[in-house]
Amino acid sequence: MRRFLLLSFLYSSFLLLMFSCKTYQLTDAKPISNSEKEVENLYFSSNEDYVYKCQMEVYGNDISGILIIKKISETTHRVVMTSDFGNKMIDFEISENDFKLNYVLEDLNKKMVINFLKNDFQELLRQKYPVAESFENENSNIFRSELNRKNYYLYFNKENSLLTQIVYTRNRKEKINFSFEAKKPTFAETIHLKHKDFKIDIKLFQITETE
């Protein structure tokens, strides 16, 4: 199954890149003046272990396992994914500018797969976002951040100030949509990562201490 998955990934990626995503536009939102100079994604800022049940759908193929994310320094996280039976699949350390691969299962040791994981987790674990513009709609305060020619739209719930969504865009096209369900600012119970120009969908569900 893994070999079929990788072949599908490699051969389909080039074709999918030929199709453009729609230009990303805010709907039912208005610009506002705001004194915020920086906003943060704090969901992986704690030193505790973040343990999730991971479900990935990649080009119609389903992969499941256990994902553990641990902050090991002020700028770096360690990410380990195992199978449901506890066999290690991949282990890497990642920061905004660095990536160190500690272990990868032979079937996953493909450049495109590693780059896909590296890029997705760099975006997911990014913490600080300088604010370029501020908006609001009925439910959210929205901040546009510009970093390295990329744009991010961060949605914070007006009632509890929790981060509910990050939309990553490039060249005004939506690339990845991150959505979060959380009860506190440092831990999201569920995370949904959906690519717009690849058939890749990742869902993370909190594993509680009693599970």
Please provide a written account of the structure.
With 211 residues, the protein is mainly beta. It has two helices and 15 strands. Strand 3 and strand 4 form a beta hairpin. The two termini are 28 Å apart.
Strand % is: over 45%
Please give the largest β-sheet: 13 strands, antiparallel
Fraction of residues in helix: 10-25%
Strand order of the largest sheet: 1-9-10-11-12-13-14-15-3-4-5-6-7
The total of helices stands at 2
Q: What Rg is obtained from the alpha carbons, in whole angstroms?
A: 17 Å
The H/E string reads: HEEEEEEEHEEEEEEEE
Structure class: mainly beta
- For the termini, the CA-CA separation is 28 Å
Residue stretches low in confidence (pLDDT < 50, at least 5 long) are: 13-20
Report the average pLDDT across residues.
87
Number of strands: 15
Q: What kind of oligomer do you see?
A: single chain
- What characteristic shape results from the CA principal axes? globular
Task: Chart the SSEs and their pairings.
Layout: H1 2-16, E1 30-31, E2 38-40, E3 49-58, E4 61-71, E5 77-82, E6 88-94, E7 99-104, H2 111-125, E8 128-130, E9 133-136, E10 140-147, E11 150-157, E12 163-170, E13 173-184, E14 187-195, E15 200-206
Antiparallel strand pairs: 1-9, 2-8, 3-4, 3-15, 4-5, 5-6, 6-7, 9-10, 10-11, 11-12, 12-13, 13-14, 14-15
